[in-house]
Amino acid sequence: MEPEPGMHRVLSTSALRIPKQRSSFWRRHADDLIVTPFAQILASLRSVRNNYVMLTNTSRDRAGTGGKSNSVPQPPHSNSNLKTDESYGQLAMETLEELDWCLDQLETMQTHRSVSDMASSKFKRMLNRELSSFRESSKSGNQIAEFICNTYLDKQQDLDIPHPQVTSDQTEKSTEKTSPMTKITGVRKLKHTNSYTTVPKYGVETQQPEELGKHLADINKWGMDVIKVAEFSNNRALTCVTYTILQERNLLKTFKIPAQTLLTYLTHLEDHYHRDNPYHNAEHAADVTQSTHVLLNAQALENVFTDLEILAAIFACAIHDVDHPGLTNQYLINTGSELALMYNDESVLENHHLAVAFKLLQEENCDIFMNLSQKQRQTLRKMTIDMVLATDMSKHMSLLADLKTMVEAKKVAGSGVLLLDNYTDRIQVLQNMVHCSDLGNPTKPLEIYQKWVNRLMKEFFHQGDMERERKLDISAMCDRHTATVEKSQVGFIDYIVHPLWETWADLVYPDAQHILDTLEFNRDWYHSQISISPSPSFTHTPTENSHFNFIEEEEGEGNGVVTINVGVDSG
C-alpha cells in the first residue's frame, strides 16, 4: 500500500530514546542494550566497519537507504592509538571475532524465517526456560506458568511444555455434534433500523445525557470509564464510543459515511456481542476502541497514518470480539466445535469475529463503506483482517518480537527515525497498537482495572465449570477452587504486559510514560495483596526492577553468543 502524497511517514527521533524514569535495568544498560538477533548483527557489522576504517586508515561515506549518503560514525579511538603492533593486532583480532560472530548468525539463519521470527523464537525459548523453574516452585506457580504458556505462546509443541494426557474416552465425550457448515454462524437478522429525525448527540438515546456527556468528555484521555458509559447509554457503550470517535476525527465527512447508516451498523454489531459474557462483551470492545483512539493521538505518531488506516484501526477494534462465546480458542478446539473445524484450529475466534463483522455490512442499510472506492475497500479490509487476527493472544511473542526488532534495528542504523514507508512496517505498528489496547486493562486506573479483573475471572470460572461438568481437564486459571487471582495478575504483568508496554513506550517516548507508571503502580498493589506463602518469585519486596526484563548473558565461556534471560529480576 503506497502512502498518500504529502503525508509524513517518519517517527521522530524521540521514538528511539530511552526515557529516564525506567527500571534500573534500562538505566544500567542505557542505549547500548540490543537484544533482538537482527539488530545485534547490524550493531556488530557497524563495529566491524568502524574497525576496518581504523585499521586501514581508509574512510568514505556509506550510501544509506534510498541512496542517501550517511556520515560514518567516528571510531571510539584515534589512529594514534594503533602505533604499536600489539594494539593493531588486538583491534584486528576483535574485528575478526565480531565478523565471525556475524557469519555464525547468518549461516544458521533459516531463509524462510523473518528477522522478527528469530527474535520471537529466542524470546519464547528464554521465557519457557524461566517458566519451567517457576512452575516447579509451587502449585499456584505451575498453574500461572501453564496459563501464560497456553495463552500467549503459539506452536506449543516446540516449547517442551508438558501436556496432560487425555484419554480416548474423554476425547469422545468432548467432541460436539456439529451441523453442516453451510453459512457463517451467529449472524442474526437486523432487529430494527434507526429512524431518527435528528441523530442523537452521542449516537444513542439516553435519559441521562449530562452524565453520559460527562464521561464521554474523557474520550481523548487514557483511562476513560467505559463501564460507566454503558450505564448511562442504555448499554450502548460500543455504539456511542465508536460514533463519538469517528465524529471527533471527522471521518464520517472524509469517507462520506451517512450517520444513519453508521448507527444502524453499530447497533446491529453491538447486538451481536453477548451481553451475558462478563468480559468479552461490547463494553470490552468499546474500551479497546477508545484506547486505540488515544494511542493514535501520540505526538510521535502525528501525521504518520492516513485517514483510511485510522478508520481501519477504529473499525477493527470495534469488531474484534463480536459474537465471542465467552470461551477460549483452546476450549473450542478441545471440544471439536464447529468453528474450530471451519477454521482448522487456527485463530478460530478471530477468524469468526471478522466473518461476522463483514457479513453484517451486507445487511440492509448497514454498509458504512458504501462510498469508498474499490481500492479503498480492499485496502481497509486487508488492514482490518491483519489487525483482528493479531488479537489472537497466542501471537503475542511474535508481535513483541516484531516491535522490538523494528525499534532496535532503526536505533542501530543510527538514523534516529523510523521510516514507516511500506505496508509491513506500518501494519506491524498498528497491530501492536491494537494488541496493547487489548492488553490495556492493567494500565488503567486501579479501580477500573479491578473491575475488568473481576469480570475476566468470572468468565474463566464459567468455562472451568463447563469443563468440570464435561469431565475435561480444567484449563489453567479457570478452576474457581484453585486459581490465585493476585499472583496471576502479578505474573501476567511481569511476563506479558510490562514487556509489551515498555517496548511501546520506547517507540512513542515520552507519550506513554504515564501509562507505564500506572501499570507499575497496579502491579505493586496486586503484589501487596498476596497474603498466603507465595512462591519465591513473588516473595521479594516489590521494587522498580521486579519486572520481566531482557538481560544479556554469556552462554558458555568465550563463545561470544549473546542471549537474553527472561524473568523476574530481583536485583
TrEMBL record:
Residue intervals of the PDEase domain: 204-533
Active site: H280 (proton donor)
Chain residue ranges for the region called Disordered: 59-83
Database matches in SUPFAM superfamilies: HD-domain/PDEase-like
Binding site for Zn(2+) 1: H284, H320, D321, D438
Stored InterPro entries: HD/PDEase_dom, PDE4_UCR, PDEase, PDEase_catalytic_dom, PDEase_catalytic_dom_sf, PDEase_CS
Residues binding Zn(2+) 2, per UniProt: D321
Record-listed E.C. numbers: 3.1.4.-
UniProt record, GO biological process: signal transduction
Cofactor(s) named in the record: a divalent metal cation
Keyword Methyltransferase attributed: no
Binding site for AMP: H280, N281, A282, E283, H284, D321, D438, Q489
Keyword Thylakoid: no
Cofactor note: Binds 2 divalent metal cations per subunit. Site 1 may preferentially bind zinc ions, while site 2 has a preference for magnesium and/or manganese ions.
Biased amino acid composition, Polar residues: 68-82
PROSITE patterns, per the entry: PDEASE_I_1, PDEASE_I_2
GO molecular function: 3',5'-cyclic-nucleotide phosphodiesterase activity; metal ion binding
Keywords from the UniProt entry: cAMP, Hydrolase, Metal-binding
Classification via PANTHER family: CYCLIC NUCLEOTIDE PHOSPHODIESTERASE
Family note: Belongs to the cyclic nucleotide phosphodiesterase family.
Name of protein: Phosphodiesterase
Organism: Crassostrea virginica
